[in-house]
Amino acid sequence: MDSVTQIALGAAVGETVMQNKVGRKASLWGAICGTLPDLDVLIPFGDPVSDFTYHRAASHSFFFMTLATPLLAWIIMRIHPKTREYSIRWPLLVWLALITHALLDSFTVYGTQIFLPFSNFPVGWSTIFVIDPLYTLPLLMGALSFFYLKRNPSMAYRLNMLGLILSTLYLVWSIGIQTHVSDLARKSLQNQNIQTSQLITGPAPFNTLLWRTVA
Description:
By secondary structure, this protein is mainly alpha-helical. It is built from 7 helices and 2 strands.
């Protein structure tokens, strides 16, 4: 997904984990961890094809993200020593912000190697376009509420949870509608006596109402 979405998702996850216990530090570090995996675009792999192939590879692996979590959490607690009492919540925040980044990327068509080093198979379910405002806006609503509702953190927390729930429901909707469209495409091909070896169904840009199918 695009960087704005990943930052908003990370911030929302951070606030959900910390539950108003460390102020806006939770959304800040959630946003940072939520965008860290995409920094692999700054690493040259030799040529444009390799750059494309190795993006969403090791930096998006569940295994390597889990290994990096204790170090990142330790750095955060070194920067904010007064928050060390949350030594369980900080690693959970970091891990979830990283994992949800890679998991969300897996719902796009481009493929994410989330199972490295055990498998380099690029997971790409293709249920959502890489930029979809209907997924992003609820997350932004929740993340920004902590800045505009400083005097009412409980309301901001509820709005954050609402945004996270709405965006998740939209992702579930995308799975259901993709399944429906794929079934329609298969039936249409069968009615025309067209045999296929593979079928790929993905959303058109910025929405989940218009779909395209390659057989």
